[in-house]
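Quick one: structure for this chain?
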Amino acid sequence: MSDKDFNEELLERTQKKMTKARAGLVLDQPFFGALALRLKPTPSAMNDTGWTDGTSIGYNPAWIDDMPLDKTKGFIAHEVMHLALGHQARRQNRDSQKWNAAGDFAINQTLIDAGFELPDDGLINSGYADKSAEEIYTLLPDSGQGGGGQDPGGCGAVVDAPGPTPDTKSNQQELKQSETDWKIAATQAAQSAKTMGNLPGAIKDMIKELLEPKVDWRDILREFIERAAKNDYTFSIPNRRYLSQGIILPSLNSKELGTACIAIDTSGSVSKDELKQFASEVNSILEEYQDITIKVIYCDTQVAHTETFHSTDMPVGLSMHGGGGTDFRPPFKWVEENIDGKPTCMIYFTDMECNSFPPDPEYPVIWIQTETPYSNHFAEAPFGEVITMDMKGDPNSRRNTI
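Got it. Here's what it folds into:
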C-alpha cells in the first residue's frame, strides 16, 4: 500500500485523532507535548505502525484508526523518547531492526512507569532496566525481537535522521546535530515541565542521566542566546534543516543581540576560578554577535558596580566587586531603572546560594549555576531556564541539569 491508497475520510479522521492526542499530551504530559510539537505529523505507509526520524512523526492511518486515544498518546510519547535519547542518530552500522528493539526495551518500562498506555505487544523486559540501547543491543539475538519488520516492537520505529548522503562526513555531522538539538530540546522541555510541577520522576531520572555527562552547557547557552538575538535571515541560502520536508525557509544571515544584560554574582561564596569562567563566556558572546552591547552588573546583596562592553573591547576581564551575601533582586531592579525598553535577555552567573528572587520579568532569563565541591544550593529558580557549569573536578567538564 502506498500513501496515496488511504482514502480522504480515513486521513481526516486519523489526522484529528493525532491532533487530539498531541493536545492531550501538552495538557497532561507537557514534557512529551512540547517535544511532540517539534515533529510534523505525516500519514505514511512506510510500515504498519509509525516511525520518526527527528523531523517528522509518520503514522499509518489504518493503525491509528484502530487504536484507542490513550494508546495513540503512548505511541507519540514512545517516538518522542527515541529522539530524546538520540536513537535516530546513534545507530551507526548496527542492524536497524535489532536497534529498534533495543531502543524499545530501553524506553518502554519508563513510559509505563510514567503512566502511559502503549500500543499492544510493546517490548518490555525488567532485566534491561537502566541499560542504554547500545548495551541492550549487544544482549539481543541476531534474529531480532517481536513481530519482525522495521518496527519489531509494534510501538513505532525510529529511523536515522535525514542527512545529505549516507556514509559521508557531512551526514555524520547532520546526525550529531540532530542528537544535540534533541538533547537541548529535551532539557528545555524537562525544565518547563518541572517548573509546572508535572515531570514524572522516571522521566526526570532518565533525562538527567542521559544529559549530565554528555551535553555541553555552553551549547544550551548558545541556543538560548540564538533565540533571543535579533536575527536577519536570507532566502538566498535556504535552511538545510527543513529542505528534506520540502519546506524552503531562510537561513541566518547576521546575528545581532542588541543589549544583553549579564549579572555576575560577586558574593563571598563565588571563587576567582568561577569569575574567570564567567569572563570567558562574556568574551565568547562578544565574539559571536554583531553590534552587541553587554551590560555587566556585579551584585552581592546590592549592585556594587556596572560595566558596558562592546565587541571592540575584547578581551575583557571581570573583577570582584562586592563579597558579601546574595540577593537576586537588585540586578533586575537596576535593569528596570537603567535600560530603555527591555533588554534582549538576562544571563545570571551565580552559585544559586540564595532564595531571594524578583518577580518574573518580561524578558528571557537564563541562570548559569556553578557547581563546585562545596556547592550548597539553597533554592531553585522560579522562572527562566537553569543550566549547570560543573567545576567540581575537570575544568573542561560541563553538564546540564534539569
